[in-house]
Amino acid sequence: MVVLRKVSDALTVTMDGLLARLLSRHAAGRPIDRAEIAALRRLTFALSPAFLAIPAGLTLLFGAATGLPIGFALATALYLLAAVALVAGRRLGAAGAEAKVPPHAGIAADPYEFCPGLFLTVDAGGIVRSAGGRDRQMFLSFLREPLARPFVEQVHVSDRLAFVQALDELRLGADVVVTDLRLDRPVIGLDQAQFLNVRLDMTAVRADDGTLLAVRAQMLDIEGEMRMRDAVARKEEEANAAHEIKSRFLAAVSHEMRTPLNAILGFSDILAGEYFGKLENDRQREYVQLIRQSGAHLLSVVNTMLDMSKIEAGRYELLLEGFDLADTLTECERMLSLQAQTKGVKLTSRLPRGLGEITADSRALRQIVINLVCNAIKFTETGGAVIIDAIRTGNEVTISVSDTGIGIAPEKMALIGRPFIQVQNDLNRNHEGSGLGLSLVKGLTALHGGTFRIESRPGEGTVVMVTLPVDGSGARAADETNMVEFPPRLAEAGAGRKTGGKAPGHDQAEAKIA
Fold first, then answer.
1. Could you tell me which residues are beta bridge partners of residue 385?
2. Which residue, of 125, 188, 308, 344, has the fewest CB within 10 Å?
3. Cis ω for the linkage preceding 69 (within 30 of 0)
4. How far apart are CA 508 and CA 429, in angstroms?
5. With 0-12 CB in 10 A as exposed, 13-18 as middle and 19+ as buried, what is 27?
6. What is the pLDDT of residues 55-101, one digit of tens each?
7. Pairing of strands 396-403, 461-469
8. Interatomic CA distance for residues 355 and 320, integer angstroms
9. d(Cα 247, Cα 234) in Å, to the nearest integer?
10. DSSP-derived 3-state class of residue 508
11. How far is CA 296 from CA 248, 290, 336, 400, 490, in A?
12. What is the pLDDT of residues 206-231, one digit of tens each?
């Protein structure tokens, strides 16, 4: 039965296609009527025995040489006359009916004819009772004679349960149910897919007592949307794969570079200390010191890249502990005082009493402060000042580092905090660095559940503020997934920028430019 049904469906689709092409040549611009095609199909099946009976009868009377051609000609003429009479009668009847009906009556009779998609009326049992809509010709050419048949037969086997559940929800009281389904194509062509993806928006029609009488369903083609979903999914997989490869590359390269760099630093320290003999002149001592400084700078960059790759991959583990905040900030100030003094910059701190303890990762907090102070010293000219401030408000502490340096132009604010981006981001820049400092600060701050804010005015200076929870609660919440947005951003590119160069932030901390 299944094979016979498929053969019948294939024969019906083929015949409908031939009849549609034939009628389109003589339609004079009018749309093809599916009812005409169905009527011609029934006429063809009804007169098909005549193509055998008439030639056979004439063959018995006049012989095969004369009876066969005359019989086929008579049968063909009879079929053509009947087809012309059928189509002409239907069109004349339709024209007469249209002449009697006012122009606006058709619009009032079926408003769904002007709505996109296919509109179906389905009874409470799921049987299709009527079909309409602007795109009904396209959908009906795809469906297998849907009228007076259960609609579930048109749905792919895997999606039939979804349709039945949607219909059951309407019976239980839901007013509207929307579901995405795949329809089975009855006959698959060379350039056709097996399924048609559609969205079925079903609305319940109820009696006065709330009983479900029927369902009005609008069917829309979502093939384009499904292709977009597939493309987005593929692009997301490609981006994730590239992201993972990049993270592994950074981690591997960082680990491989640290071993020779440590050897360079160790041997340069031995040479500088002259443990195995005196150096001959001051130029050799100067070169050894330059090797030491260059190796230390490169090692700091490698360590920063390694920390960034850990944050990006969600593998950076915070070791929370309680420690005195003022002591930590003072220690950072002492560590960088020589660097500031060498450049002629005054480094001071203004720490109020009663800052107390903070629960955080002490190494990460030192890294945050050191990066901010190093940046401030680097972009502050000789004679300028860099100030470390801290204030405790409730359960939060705000650490700010202000300077009187070159400042940041408003158009550059949206780029600050992204990896390998500097204020002077060209080959002729005057300040060395990889552009990783603020990016690492933002990542470590986010891991602690804190917020980051920056204000700057070109030629006057910059203030960077980091706000952290005192009790470490933000870090414990972030540790559940240990993932932060990376690369961190202060603002979306193209966002509105203020003249003062103030980047949007989440806290209300304020600090004055020294």
1. 346
2. 125
3. no
4. 33
5. middle
6. 888 888 888 888 788 888 888 888 878 877 877 777 777 666 555 54
7. antiparallel
8. 18
9. 20
10. coil
11. 24, 10, 15, 27, 30
12. 998 888 999 999 999 888 888 899 89
